[in-house]
Design a protein that fits this description.
Elements: E1 2-8, H1 11-26, E2 30-37, H2 49-54, E3 59-63, H3 72-93, E4 97-101, H4 105-116, E5 121-124, H5 135-145, E6 148-151, H6 154-162, E7 170-172, H7 177-183, H8 189-196, E8 203-208, H9 219-230, E9 236-241, H10 249-262, E10 267-270, H11 274-281, E11 287-290, H12 293-297, E12 306-309, E13 322-325, H13 329-340, H14 357-367
Parallel strand pairs: 1-2, 1-4, 2-3, 4-5, 5-6, 6-7, 8-9, 8-11, 9-10, 11-12, 12-13
Helix pairs in contact: 1-7, 1-14, 3-4, 4-5, 9-10, 9-13
Length: 382
């Protein structure tokens, strides 16, 4: 059997990878080696390793790396810890292949460790651009360390090739997050309200906002304006999910706690909703406000609008349900008003595939045994 290591460090990325993890675990051609790291192992961010255990997935290794600091120095030191931890994990597990998704700092460390150990890497969601965050550089760096590339759209495949990767090893499989939407049995409204111990109102908003690591505006200033725009929304309940562990994420989370404490009848927060509750919430809220990639890729599948704030996701392909917005209070209020009047009865075309990424990735892993890590740089004609 091929030993396939899959690395997960956050709740969001685990939700995307879940169908693939399950498929590899159940396939007799593969041995699953699940490596859990970063936010999953932090009580501050919900200790979501328990969700993985509850889902019945065996964990091969845990790589502790998060520090209590989310400053630039703290993040860099966490990356160093992750680099060392993944090196030890690969040495013990000896995987034949490593699958990585996205662009988080611990995933970058996992890629560097695999590359130096001569373990081929399959990278999911490469070729995308997010101009407002340093994830942009990390994502493209992981592309250059990887052997197979599983992109979410044809435009992203072209960008990976532009980075010098062989077109024969670049596969447009679509966004893997759509796989779960097709396969999960989502909660009905009563079940969902019971699961969060919170009643929905006539109108409802889900807020998922993360630090913008390349912005000059402070996290407090930007998020304060978002909170101000929510202040006087009538007959409206608000569900917050915590920011991630990026630089200054704790500042945003403290602001969420304070807001909910002062508005306990109309708002609630969660360190992690988990995949089932998060996707179920999208059936019942009127919009998502924030700057998460889920607002660009998964949320549109539910035919509700996303108010995408700032430049964190700038450069991604966006369908017609995305309303780009600044942190200007008047712009925010206008976009919220527009989103509440959005026509949800129409079906809008989206750019991220048909929810079959898992099957396509499995097929590539099975059909490609002869891997030569001496990659030749693929030049394109200008």
């Amino acid at each position: 059997m091929k030993k396939i290591a899959i690395v997960t460090g956050s709740r969001a990325e685990y939700g995307l990878l879940k169908p693939l993890i399950k498929a590899i675990m159940l396939d007799s051609d593969f041995e699953l080696q699940l490596i859990v790291s970063a936010m999953h192992l932090s009580t501050e961010f919900g200790y979501t390793v328990n969700e993985i255990i509850k889902d019945g997935f065996p964990i091969a290794k845990k790589v502790e790396c998060l520090l209590s600091s989310d400053t630039a120095v703290g993040v860099s030191k966490s990356m160093a810890l992750a680099l060392s931890g993944f090196a030890d994990a690969y040495e013990d597990l000896r995987p034949d292949f490593v699958l990585l998704l996205g662009d988080r700092t611990e995933i970058f460390s996992a890629a560097i460790s695999a590359m130096t150990a001569n373990i081929p890497i399959g990278h999911i969601h490469g070729g995308e651009t997010t101009e407002g965050a340093y994830d942009e550089g990390i994502r493209h760096a992981i592309t250059k360390l990887s052997y197979f590339h599983f992109t979410s759209a044809e435009e992203y495949s072209k960008r990976v090739i532009q980075l010098g990767e062989n077109p024969k090893r670049v596969f447009n499989v679509g966004a893997i997050g759509l796989d779960s939407i097709k396969k999960l049995n989502l909660l009905n409204k009563v079940e969902f309200e019971k699961s969060i111990n919170f009643k929905l109102d006539k109108r409802n908003i889900l807020v998922t906002y993360h630090p913008v690591t390349l912005e000059k505006i402070s996290p407090e200033e930007g998020f304060n304006k978002i909170l101000s725009s929510l202040e006087n929304q009538e007959n409206t309940h608000i569900i917050f999910t915590f920011a991630n562990s990026d630089k200054n994420g704790r500042i945003i989370n403290d602001m969420i706690k304070k807001y909910v404490s002062n508005h306990s009848k109309k708002s609630i927060y969660f360190k992690s909703l988990g995949q089932l509750r998060y996707l179920s919430a999208l059936k019942y809220v009127d919009m998502v406000i924030g700057n998460s990639s889920s607002g660009i890729i998964e949320v549109p599948q539910f035919n509700i609008p996303t108010i995408n704030i700032g430049d964190r996701q700038k450069g991604r392909l966006m369908g017609p349900t995305i309303f780009n917005c600044t942190t200007d209070i008047n712009d925010l209020l206008n976009k919220i008003k527009l989103a509440f009047s959005f026509d949800k009865s129409k079906k809008y075309k989206q750019p991220y595939g048909n929810g079959t990424a898992t099957e396509q990735i499995i097929r590539v892993l099975k059909e490609n045994d002869n891997i030569n890590l001496k990659k030749k740089f693929h030049d394109i004609e200008f």
